[in-house]
């Protein structure tokens, strides 16, 4: 297979269904079927339940079997044990169902040939019927646009937060994660102000894989950038092809590949049993269009994607560092060094401007420390930021954010970033950042928050380094 | 100077004063003098104010000058501009004051000889009088035992949190940070349940340095371990000597050295102007006694110190990983690999025990994934933890902590850790951990929380690697 020959699964009936069947619907709110039913209740489409042992659940009629459904549904969610999955997939294929989501585990990830063969039978059944197969061993999917939450995981509410200011037009991220548990953990970033519009998982990827999701997202208007956590694919070369599509459509991608260690790749064999991607470079990453950045560790994934969604094209290679204390400035330049970032000294005109605004005892250099005086005179920081952003050698400004710095500075810093066309990145120094402050920065289109200096510097290096 | 010849400043009059004078006391709550006065009000000792322009501030009498004070105070805090510092230090020395804290900046950290010479004069004045000098360019100190907060920074309340369970006997950390802004940021870890009893800063370290603080802490009963953030000392070899004292007294140290990069060391010259420590190994780290671990990045400092305060001696070199999902297990083993940790496969008896408790489709190996079944059957995790901790090759258990895992597991996990004499380390996978959950784990004497897998693995590697 060449990259050019890649084809992508048609995901319309899966991700924009008019009708959904939940097979294994349950009135027990702790069960997979019960949790999925609760998640589906906000979805406004035609929802049908299948359960041979009940006539109604939660006010909805139950059908005794898949072949009794009143229509060939766009998507069937199989919340049934693995022993019942194959027959259910067979009935879905026979009944013209558009897509199936298989939660059950116990397939290729289990030692021995049985699970792998069972998984191959599911893929063959779905493939022969032209039916999209998600999973097995997955937690499902959620999209904001049509309020679909076809998952047993407790994903947070997607879309623009209810308490977001009306003026904000936040960047919208899609989260694509092969692992459901990681998708659940990472999606909690909405509590930090991140706007997620899609959470898409695929588990063992017997049918569709992360590449199918990426290719589909390239065409979605409510996705500005993608955060991707991936173990492997059946055919790893599909990944660069899909990343190419996203890059060409102007959507940057932050990507965390699992299995960097040999032990990690061995563990993948016992998890999704896909072909691991890490350990070697992904062949043929896009060289043009929006950036694709390899992220490590996983904690940096969402904030890096969000930064990429906001950042304009870099205009140079150097960054300026502006701190409210000497210690945090030193830590920042150490982190910049670890990330391979250039921290050039300011031009003489910039130095003159800094000299005019800083206290006598503050050094006129990069990193620039406005000293504790800035807590009494907050505009010091803004004047220095303006001078540094104006320097031709500065393509982004990194500000270690201390506990005593005021949220009143966010709006003027954002205005400066906008005017200079250069991102201003705030790295929180506190081990317990105030979530509402981080969210304010996150929702700003010109500022980007990071939980650590290293995370910020690696993101800047990836963005500049293309 | 040899290490053996190091002498340590007598810090009793600084850190356990009976009388304190605040020079530059102010009724303006935004000023250095006003903020320091507010911080001092909980201290029960004899507090005197010096301000030539006012007769009373906040109900306390003001003296016109240092030489009018009613007694030779143990500690004088100089919240005055740098232009007034030298004369104030001279008066303190003449008046038998025990120690002075100098907040003002504009000394050795400023380019040119003037600042350095001014700083040397302060050191000479204090030295000749046998007076302890803290600073200049520092934010002050705080100790829990005598409720002293002699700082202009807004340190959080020290000591055991009011809402901590009565049964808990948390480990007590001292935070020693040359940089005041870092001390302020790091001290916020009390909101995560960390018990801090001392926050000690020294800025430019013209008089006492971090080594003096460390040597003093070796003898303090309310300090179980130390977190140290340091740029440099006048005489760097004093540091290993002080670390030796702490190690010999059984108090582990987590140490973050600033200035790992050349640019960082250059920035130190413009900050505290001390001799940088990073970039080369600290000579002669203790080889016996409690561990001293180099920590990077700074975010890991407090949680590593807290872990060391709890961890017994390692009984082997391998760790076991126990996850509620395959993805987080893979990430954990990748992080272990980056930290150089060994993740050995379980012994056959351990495998038998795991096989009996895990679902059929879960792999019987290390990393051990109890799968999503554990959200419905939480005791799965405990049974697997017991089996893994019982394995002779396991010296600690690392658990990536997912969003869907229950706080009800903390107490039984703690009991297992206690019984096996091996620490159980929980690494939070959520980007927005619930603080009350983290605090519960933090206050537990047998469990240790970490904000990331890499931070946990580096701490484990440092602990095992001695």
Summarize the structure.
Chain A is of the alpha/beta class and 466 residues long. The first copy, chain A, contains 16 helices and 21 strands. Helix content of chain A is 34%, strand content 20%.
Structural account:
Two copies of one chain form a homodimer. The first copy, chain A, is of the alpha/beta class and 466 residues long. Helix content of chain A is 34%, strand content 20%. Chain A contains 16 helices and 21 strands. A seven-stranded mixed sheet of chain A has the order 3-4-2-1-5-6-7, with helices on both faces. A seven-stranded mixed sheet of chain A has the order 9-8-11-10-12-14-16, with helices on both faces. A five-stranded parallel sheet of chain A has the order 18-17-19-20-21, sandwiched between helices. The relative contact order of chain A is 0.09. The model of chain A has no long low-confidence stretch (mean pLDDT 94). Chains A and B meet through helix 5, helix 8 and helix 10 of A and helix 5, helix 8 and helix 10 of B.
Relevant terms:
homodimer; 466 residues; alpha/beta; 7-stranded mixed sheet; 16 helices; 21 strands; elongated
Write the layout of secondary structure elements.
The structure is a homodimer of 466-residue chains.
Chain A: H1 12-15, E1 19-23, H2 32-40, E2 46-50, E3 56-57, E4 60-63, E5 75-78, H3 82-94, E6 99-102, H4 113-128, E7 132-134, E8 140-143, E9 148-151, E10 172-177, H5 180-187, E11 195-201, H6 210-217, E12 225-230, E13 232-233, H7 238-248, E14 253-257, H8 262-269, E15 275-276, E16 292-294, H9 301-310, E17 318-323, H10 326-338, H11 348-357, E18 368-369, H12 373-376, H13 379-390, E19 394-401, H14 410-420, E20 424-428, H15 435-443, E21 447-450, H16 453-464
Parallel strand pairs in A: 1-2, 1-5, 2-4, 5-6, 6-7, 10-11, 10-12, 12-14, 14-16, 17-18, 17-19, 19-20, 20-21
Antiparallel strand pairs in A: 3-4, 8-9, 8-11, 13-15
Helix pairs in contact in A: 3-4, 6-7, 9-16, 10-16, 11-13, 13-14
